[in-house]
Amino acid sequence: MRAPVESGQKRPTSNPSLLAWVDEMAKMCKPDRVYWCDGSPEEKQRLTEEAVAGGVLIPLDQKKLPGCYFHHSNPNDVARVEHLTFICTPTKEEAGPTNNWMAPQEAYHKLAAIYDGAMKGRTLYVVPYVMGPARSPFAKVGIELTDSVYVALNMGIMTRMGKVALDRLGPTSAEFNKGLHSVADCNPERRFICHFPQDNTIWSVGSGYGGNALLGKKCLALRIASYLAKNEGWLAEHMLILEAESPTGEKRYVAGAFPSACGKTNFAMMIPPKAFQGWKIRTVGDDIAWMRVGEDGRLWAVNPEYGYFGVAPGTNRKTNPNAMDTIKKDTLYTNVARTKDGDVWWEGMDGEVPAELIDWKGQPWKKGSAEKAAHPNSRFTAPVQNNPALSPSYDDPKGVPIDAIIFGGRRSTTVPLVLQSFDWKHGVYLGATMGSETTAAATGAVGVVRRDPMAMLPFCGYDMGSYLRHWLDMEKRIPKPPKVFLVNWFRKSQDGKFLWPGYGDNMRVLKWMLDRCQGAVGAQETALGFTPKAGDLDVRGLEHADIAGATRIDLGEWAGELESQTEWFQKIGKTLPRELEQQRQDLLAKVKAA
Ligand code: SAT
Ligand code: MN
C-alpha cells in the first residue's frame, strides 16, 4: 500500500483525534499529497493558480471582474441529488419516511469501496472550518477532506476557513464534524451523499457540486445540525435572516424559510421601493439560520455561513441590485454562460441578449437558440463582505433577536400573499403543510407541487414527524416567541400572470408583518388566519399589482388544499404530532362552515 505523501508541510495541529482521523482517511483514499489549508490570502491565490493551471477554473476578465473565475461542472453533476442522499441512523425509523435511509455499516462499507484509492494522483486538501461566528457559543467546527481544489476554494468563501477553525477546536477536542469528500470518477451510478448524525460524520462521493460537496452547508449546517438541535433544544433551519431598520433607527429581525431557488437571496438583499424612504434592509444570512433561546426569552439567530451560494439566472439590477454588486469581485461562477471577452451572462440578466456566447458546457451559443446558455441552477459563490447591504450583526457572536418567522413557497394558486397565524401551534401547522413547486436546484421534474415543511424536506437529518414535534415543543422553551407568517410571492392569475410584482415590493408585506408584531396595523380574521384588509398594506407608488387577487382567500380552493394535506400527513406516518392533524380538521370544519 502506498503511504500518503505530505507536501513537506508541517501539520498545523497536534490534536490527536484530528490527526488520527486524517491519517485513517488518507490511508483509504491514497492521495499523492495531503495539504492542510490555513485560510490565508496567499494560500487562496496559490490554490487559485493551481486550479487555473489544472483547467478547473478559467479566469474571467480581471479588469471587469477582479478575482473572478469560471468553473464548469461535469454536465451530469449540476444540482443536489436527493435520491442519492442518505441519512444513516442505526434504525430506519430515526431517518423517517421522507429521507432515504441506509444502515451505517452498509453505508461505510459501500462508500469505503469507492473511496479506496480514489485520490491516487490527487491532493487531499484538509479544510478546517467553523460554521457561525468563530467566538459564538453557536459555532461548530468541521473538517472537510476533499480531493477537489474547487471545493476547497468554495469552502474558503462559504465558511470561516483555516487556522481560525483549528484555533477554535484546540489541541485536544474531538468535537468536530468529520466530512470526507471525493469527486472520485464523478459517476452518477457511484454517487452517494451519506450522513451519520450519531457519528457527526458525512461521507460524500461522486459529485463536485454545491450542496453535495460543500459539506459545511446543507450536510452539516442543516442535516447534521438539525439532529443536534433536536437533542439540544434549538433550531437549525433553511432560513434567511434579514435586518429591517426603520426611519427612526429601530432595528428588527426576521427569519424566513423558502425552498431552494425561491428567492431567499433576493428577499435577504431587498432594496425597498421609493415610498419606503428611510428604511434600510440588510442581510444577516441568505440561506441558513441557527436559532437558540436567549436569556431574555426571545429566539436569537446566527447565520453559520460566510458567503453566498446564489442562483445566477434571474439575478439582475432590478431583481437584486445588491447581489449584482456582491458578485463583481472575488466570485466563483459555476455553469453560467460567458462572453468571448471573459464576462459572464445568464438568462434574465439586464440588457440585450448577446448575439454569441459560450454556453455553460463550453460550446458556442447563438441568440435565439432553444438551449439555455446558462444552466438554470448555475451559481455564484461570493464572500458576505462583498454585499453592500451586509448587516454588521452578521458576525455578532450572540446573533440577532427574531421578531417574525416567515414560511413561503412557490404556489401559482390558493396561497395568499400573506397570512398571519393565530398562534405558535397554528404557525407550525402552516410551516408543516407548506407546499412549493419544484425548481432546478435539485435534479428531477421542475414545477410539481410538493409538500416541503419549513423548506426542510431535503435537509432534515431525522424523522419528519419528530422534527415537527420538536417545533411544537419549542413553544414551551421560548417565553417570547416570534410571530409566524405564511407568504406567497408567486400566485398567478387565470391567464398565467403574476398577481404580485415581488422583489423590492415585498417590502410592503414585510412592513405589514413587522407592524403586526407590534400590534401597529390592522388585519382581518379569516378562517385560515389574519390577512391584510384593504388599506392595511402600504401600496403607495405600487404599479402592476392585483392586490385583491393576490391577497384573496378562496374557500373552495382551500377546502381542496386542506383535504390534499391528508396524503402528506399519512406519508409522515405515526410520528406526526396529533395536534397538527387536529389543526387541519379544525380549519377544514371552519372553511366548510364559512
Ligand atoms: O446546492 S445547494 O444545496 O447548496 C443550494 C440549494 O439547493 O439550496
Ligand atoms: Mn438553500
TrEMBL record:
Enzyme active site: 262
Compartment(s) of residence: Cytoplasm
PROSITE patterns according to UniProt: PEPCK_GTP
One family name in Pfam for this protein: PEPCK_N
Chain positions recorded as Mn(2+) binding sites: 218, 238, 287
The keyword DNA repair is assigned to this record: no
Residue sites binding GTP per the record: 261-266, 379, 410, 503-506
Required cofactor(s): Mn(2+)
InterPro entries: PEP_carboxykin_GTP_CS, PEP_carboxykinase_C, PEP_carboxykinase_GTP, PEP_carboxykinase_GTP_C, PEP_carboxykinase_GTP_N, PEP_carboxykinase_N
The enzyme's E.C. designation: 4.1.1.32
Alphabetical GO biological process terms: cellular response to glucose stimulus; gluconeogenesis; glycerol biosynthetic process from pyruvate; oxaloacetate metabolic process; propionate catabolic process; response to lipid; response to starvation
Cofactor binding summary note: Binds 1 Mn(2+) ion per subunit.
Record's keyword annotation contains Lyase: yes
SUPFAM superfamilies in UniProt: PEP carboxykinase N-terminal domain, PEP carboxykinase-like
Family named by the database record: Belongs to the phosphoenolpyruvate carboxykinase [GTP] family.
HAMAP family documented for this protein: PEPCK_GTP (MF_00452)
Subunit (UniProt): Monomer.
Protein name from the UniProt record: Phosphoenolpyruvate carboxykinase [GTP]
Species assigned in the record: Anaeromyxobacter diazotrophicus
Biological classification of the source: Bacteria, Pseudomonadati, Myxococcota, Myxococcia, Myxococcales
Gene it is expressed from: pckG
